[in-house]
Structure prediction request, 125 residues.
Amino acid sequence: MPENKILIIEDSPTMRQLISFALKRLPGVRIVEASDGVDGLKKLSTEKFDLILTDINMPIMDGLKLVSLVRGDANYRSVPIVVITTEGAQEDRARALALGANDYITKPIQANRILELAKSLLKNA
Ligand SMILES: [Mg+2]
Prediction:
């Protein structure tokens, strides 16, 4: 079975765990976690991912910066990105989508919404 590799970039360990737990319901997924944008880029440089989920508000490097860097790099340009935003943060969502993110989820996270999005964006799910 083809493996889907998903990178979760989120500074809250609890939130990472929640998202990771939801995505593990999909068959054949492997999940890698990163704690901020810089850590995320480091992990992106070592292996290829099929989907990236990234928080917006993070220390060191935020999600908007990460989205713009990923979209500016020919190696990652086509990897689907979902941003994780807080309720009411319409501006962040609009900016993320303008920078090239494919879609967004809003905290509090709903497992069904994450699964639905992952299925629609992963080629092998
Ligand atoms: Mg955060």
In short: The domain at 4-121 is CATH 3.40.50.2300 (Rossmann fold). Helices lie at 13-23, 37-46, 63-71, 90-99, 111-121. Strands lie at 4-9, 29-34, 51-55, 81-86, 103-107.
